[in-house]
Amino acid sequence: MEITKLPISWQVVLAEEFEKPYFKQLQEFLALERQTQTIYPPEEDVFSAFELTPYHDVKVLLLGQDPYHDENQAHGLCFSVKPGIKTPPSLVNMYKELKDDIGCDIPSTGYLVEWAKQGVLMLNAVLTVRAHTANSHKNKGWEKFTDAVISQVNQKSDPVVFVLWGGYAQKKLKLIDTTRHIVIQSAHPSPLSAHNGFFGSKPFSKINAALEACNKSPINWEIGNKYIEY
Question: 129-130 and 39-40 as β-strands: parallel, antiparallel, unpaired?
Fold first, then answer.
């Protein structure tokens, strides 16, 4: 696991984590897993969220849970899939809400890199998974690492919008100073829960309103079709 794949801005704020016993144990676990199992995302994509959204550029933190575990889906951004891959159900529901909320056309691709490039840190709580086995890398150390990421984003002097969908993400509220930052919460967009408070929650317009209130440029949520591969 190449720590050097992290941009310098993230290496600086997370330096202490790399020296902790849990992180070294996590590295050993992943090295063994990659020798004996198929792991997603590919090693070069594990830190994609950090590469695309440097620390100083983070305006929004969108928290997911576990990477997609089927072939060619995960590439290091929560909810996003590689070009040409069928849009997963949770993202389908996000797109429905996006259309209802601010009128964006529903994209034909699930590739969300353009959001990340605009300052949306698209962070999963766990950054790797064994093929076809959901939550297989749970409680191996990633949660401690990503909690440290959330805590460091919380330390930013400028306000950040934290988006916590579902009960798992909302447990991270304790890491966020809500007197300085904005938190947007609702049910998860999963088909199991979207009708319990995600649909109609208008998260995308709320995020942009919060950014504009902090004198930051809003996110252009429109996803073009230029990444589709047939």
Answer: antiparallel
Taking alpha carbons only, the member of 212, 35, 63 closest to residue 151 is 63
**Catalytic annotation present for 66:** yes
Q: How many angstroms separate the CA atoms of 195 and 175, rounded?
A: 27
- Name the stretches of the chain with pLDDT < 70: 1-4, 225-230
pTM: 0.94
Dist CA 229 CA 22 (whole Å): 39
Per-residue confidence (pLDDT) for residue 6, from 0 to 100: 87
- Rounded Cα gap, residues 62 and 169, in angstroms: 9
Residue 189: its pLDDT value, please? 98
What is the spatial distance between Cα 95 and Cα 207, in angstroms, rounded to a whole number?
A: 15
Q: Sketch out the chain's domains with CATH numbers.
A: 3-213 (3.40.470.10)
Using alpha carbons, select from 100, 123, 106 the residue that is nearest to residue 10. 123
pLDDT of residue 230: 24
For the chain, strand residue ranges (E) read 39-40, 60-64, 120-124, 129-130, 161-165, 182-186
Nearest residue to 143 (alpha-carbon basis) of 125, 157, 131: 125
- The per-residue b/e assignment along 33-50, b for 16 or more CB within 10 angstroms, e otherwise, is beeeeebbbeeebbbbbb
- Which listed residue (66, 100, 101, 158) is catalytic? 66
Which residues on neighbouring strands pair with residue 164, listed in sequence order? 63, 185
